[in-house]
Design a protein that fits this description.
This protein is mainly alpha-helical. The protein contains 5 helices and 2 strands; from the N terminus they run αααααββ. Among the domains are: about 30 residues; about 70 residues.
């Protein structure tokens, strides 16, 4: 057998044994004493599921089976979806919160307010209703402009 092939097989065997040890150690992790126990357990379970399914994917490749046509492909896609959902839930805790009170004060104080009642009365018609907005039509031929009532 070629030395490179033999070396590659030995490296693969070493890595598989290391992975086997890591998976066995991960089974003994206790999440009960941690305040983020549920989030860590979900991440841990997703990690293990993805690892084992990926190993099966690699096994199928070594056997000459196309994993894209095998149900393992759908399982990997499903696990990836759950990983994405877990990330969204985790990131939700750390996104910035809007201080609604401060926002309301900011908007309230940036809006124009009449200084006195006379200004407010000037904005209203004689019957107490608000004045209609007027349009200003600019004529290209004339230099001056005049307000036009919307009704016309």
């Amino acid at each position: 057998m070629d030395k490179r092939v033999k070396s590659t097989i030995n490296k693969l065997h070493t890595k598989v044994e290391l992975l086997k040890e890591l998976l066995e150690k991960s089974d003994s992790i206790n999440f009960d004493n941690d305040e983020d126990a549920l989030a860590k357990k979900v991440g841990h379970d997703l990690f293990k599921s993805f690892t084992v399914t990926s190993l099966f994917w690699a096994y199928l490749k070594t056997q000459g089976v196309d994993p894209n046509e095998h149900p393992v492909k759908q399982e990997l896609d499903r696990i990836k979806q759950y990983i994405a959902k877990s990330k969204v839930i985790h990131d939700r805790k750390f996104r910035p919160k809007v201080d609604q009170g401060a926002s309301k004060r900011f908007v309230k104080h940036s809006l124009w307010k009449p200084k006195n009642k006379d200004e407010l009365q000037n904005m209203k018609n004689s019957d107490g209703s608000k004045q209609q907005n007027t349009k200003i039509i600019f004529d290209d031929n004339e230099m001056d402009c005049e307000p036009v009532d919307q009704a016309s």
